[in-house]
Specification:
Elements lengths: L1 E5 L5 H11 L6 H8 L4 E8 L2 E11 L2 E9 L8 H15 L4 E6 L4 H9 L3 E10 L4 E9 L3
Parallel strand pairs: 4-5
Antiparallel strand pairs: 1-2, 2-3, 3-4, 5-7, 6-7
Length: about 150
């Protein structure tokens, strides 16, 4: 059974390990831990059988939030974990008065693009040469809602 909970300091090493498995330019454990101390941040983990199956992190200022990172364990993909993380994040942000969520994604990441489209995100722009390793533009996706 999967449960989505606020990330704790004890989960940071597992989240950092997942970062290294999922991204070519991963966040360090120290950077992730720092987000847990940031009052603007909300980071959640999807826990399954005592293990971190995925996570999502955001920062909100006033009524707008940005997804900092979203990752799902490659062995657990295709089972709705990413969709569940996005759904719980959105619900918690709505409860805090946030009315929009923005993120960047690689145009080559077809699975992520399909997830975001299914969750109601639309393309709002792009950032040239945003990603490193390999160098690639980012698409800016956005979702808005009314409270």
């Amino acid at each position: 059974m999967m449960e989505i909970l606020p990330m704790t300091a004890a989960q940071v090493p597992a989240v950092a390990a997942l970062e290294r498995r999922c991204f070519t330019d991963p966040w360090s454990a120290r950077s992730i831990a720092g987000e847990l101390e940031n009052p603007l941040s909300l980071w959640l983990t999807a826990m399954e059988d005592g293990a971190v199956a995925g996570y999502i992190g955001s920062q909100a200022v006033l009524d707008a939030a940005d997804v900092m990172n979203l990752a799902v364990d490659p062995a657990r993909r295709g089972r709705g974990i990413g969709r569940a993380l996005l759904g719980v994040l959105e619900a918690r942000l709505r409860a805090a008065g946030v009315t929009s969520l923005t993120l960047e994604v690689r145009p080559s990441n077809e699975a992520a693009l399909a997830l975001y489209a299914a969750c109601g995100f639309t393309q709002a722009g792009h950032r040239p040469n945003y990603y490193r390793n390999p160098r690639e533009d980012a698409w800016i996706l956005r979702k808005e809602w009314k409270l």
